[in-house]
Amino acid sequence: MFEFNIDKIESQGKKIYETAIALQVKYGMLVQDDFCRERILQHKGTRVEGERVFYSEELVREMIPFGSKDKGLFCDITEDSFHYRGNQEGNDGYRFRAGGFAMSVYDVEKGTARASTAKDLEEALMLCDVLNIGGHYPCTATDCDPRLRNIAAHFMCLTKSRVSCTHVCAGIEQADIIHRMHQVLGPEAQMPITMTIVTPFRIEETNLQVIRHFIEKGVAPKSLRIVPVGYGLSGMNYPITTGGSWALCLAEHMGLKITATLIKSGFDIAKAVGPVGLGPVDFQNMCLALGNPSQNFCHFANNILVHAALGRNWREYPHAEQGLWTGSPFPDTQAASEKLSTAIMGHLMGCKMYGRLGNLCVDDVFSCEQLLLDIELVKYAREMIGQFGKADAFMDMEGLMEEVGDYVENDVSFMMAGSTMKYLRELFPEPGIFVHKKLAAIKETGSDSLLKQLSERKRELLKQYNFALPGEQQKELENIYEDAKRILIK
Questions:
Q1: pTM exceeding the 0.85 threshold for the entire prediction
Q2: Pairing of strands 202-203, 359-360
Q3: Could you read off the pLDDT of 327-349 as tens digits, one per residue?
Q4: What backbone torsions phi and psi does residue 280 show, to the nearest 5 degrees?
């Protein structure tokens, strides 16, 4: 594993922190809801100009203090923030997250992408459940009425998977329905409400309306969770430099956390997805497909800053999702090389969570086959990088005299010797899908052969699916879903 100069990173982190403070104090947050603004103004160190709320420097520093080498420089807003159901155990100490919201799926039989359906979403959620992969719903049920798609996604996440979940980012009617769904699972089942930033320094108005609605309605605060999400800082909204992007992202998350805290009224506030989520989402630093040779450097720099954010104990818990992005619309060699490149970079820098599994064409296409291949690529990268720590094994010479004797006296090749194969298995990664001895066959038959193997693997895994809610809960959720159809499709 690579190490880094924490003292130098701390000084760079301090520069980012101070710049973020200055940005937040100067520009505040646009809060387009009078109820929420009034709640904020009840606190010392706040003022309002029109619809924009400003926080004093003293308040910002008090609520978002600069950390330390051990605790993490930005620890107050960048701690682990997994709001998905389930604990995702069983993935060798690291986590996977499926890609989200794709409008298309790759059809292996037809060899092309097509619009995703409810059946595709159900299959993807079932596969994620078997593999214990959390995340948002992988693809969209485009065959559902557009007014019902968000509800359908929540319904299927709750009934088809133990680990998948998604945010509430719709209007009040849908939020009420989704809250009813979550309450079916029990009083402790929290419904996550997104509080999304829209760059620069504006909170999504619909999110505020939903939060206001539940406060005024008197809903038990512990049944809800506000999840600050910084997706506004993406695409061409990024500043040019990585440091500038970090400073703006941190400033906006400062505003998100402070705003959420001042209006929360007992609600649970998730740690912000914060600067640790800042990665290759911007078009400048996207994937190799867009012809940017600085992609790997940007991954490297971002992950070093992640370490500064999390402190010296960054290896001890999952953090800093490394998105396996690709510009390819197909599960081909381009997709594999781009995803493997980012997986290697993430592992070198100690990432323990890998996201965007199954995504193609950035995030427009989802493929179950690609998801299986992505898992394989991550494992391959981790095993490959892990070889750097096996110097003792490489120096092992046990059985060498006998092997050489067999070769000299009996003309037996080294690869026929049992000890040689033993060393090979111990020292080198052994993938489970595209095993070494089959590489020649794959080259001869083309990539279709691999995709067919992956499709068969998917079918075998789906046979292991065994999740079912208790009958009463399933029936109640079905009734709520039918109510949603009558309420939303008018």
A1: no
A2: unpaired
A3: 788 898 888 888 888 888 777 76
A4: -85, 35
